[in-house]
Design goal:
Blueprint: H1 9-44, E1 64-71, E2 80-81, E3 88-95, E4 101-104, E5 110-116, E6 119-123, E7 137-140, E8 145-147, E9 151-152, E10 178-186, E11 189-190, E12 194-198
Parallel strand pairs: 2-12
Antiparallel strand pairs: 1-3, 3-8, 3-9, 4-7, 5-6, 5-10, 10-11, 10-12
Length: 199
């Protein structure tokens, strides 16, 4: 009659160790996968996270700085205007990254807005342009500011229904020391406000 022998204690121990290592590997894989997903989702909702910069690609929003400027027709800065002075607006855009990138600075995505406190006074979005708004894709080099041409503001309000100029019949704004704030929006990026005064 044959003898039935079970596996030896060493074999049982080896099997248990193998099974334990498999379980630990599975747990580690699950934790690593969950961590990767959490980090990916966090990147979607964290605009302050450092962007991945690729030379020649479209600029990441985080690597573009827009500055609004107020001054005169030769683009000398000015923050107070006499009754006969016409304010001019322009913007500068700077690539704050480390590689060249492409950015649209055309009139299709470029707007100026003027407020006085919470009162929305004027927006170039309201202007009725004879020519279609177009794109202008520029290559921005790192740490080099690119300035737009200055455009005048006729010291009037604007309206989506009636336009943005004196010729459109828009009313003049208050002067006599009234304070206003200009912002520039370029391709979805918005500048800090710049304050100026109309005397």
């Amino acid at each position: 009659m044959p003898n039935n022998y079970g596996p030896s204690a060493g074999v049982i121990r080896a099997r248990r160790i193998t099974a334990l290592l498999v379980v630990i590997g599975l747990i580690w894989g699950i934790i690593a996968g969950v961590t990767s997903v959490v980090n990916w989702i966090g990147g979607l909702f964290n605009p302050g996270q450092s962007p991945t910069l690729v030379a020649g690609a479209d600029c990441q929003p985080q690597q573009v700085k827009i500055e609004a400027h107020v001054g005169n027709s030769d683009q000398s800065l000015q923050n107070a205007f006499n009754p006969t002075d016409t304010p001019y607006f322009w913007f500068s855009v700077t690539n704050t990254g480390t590689v060249d990138c492409k950015f649209n600075v055309g009139p299709s995505v470029t707007y100026y807005n003027v407020k006085s406190g919470s009162d929305a006074i004027w927006s170039s979005k309201d202007c009725k342009l004879s020519a279609a708004r177009t794109d202008n894709i520029m290559t921005l080099k790192p740490a080099t500011a690119l300035s737009a041409q200055a455009s005048d503001w006729q010291r009037v309000r604007s309206s989506t229904s009636s336009g943005c100029t004196l010729a459109d019949g828009q009313p003049s704004v208050k002067a006599n020391g009234a304070s206003y704030v200009l912002t520039a929006e370029v391709n979805g990026n918005i500048s800090d406000g710049v304050q100026f005064v109309l005397n």
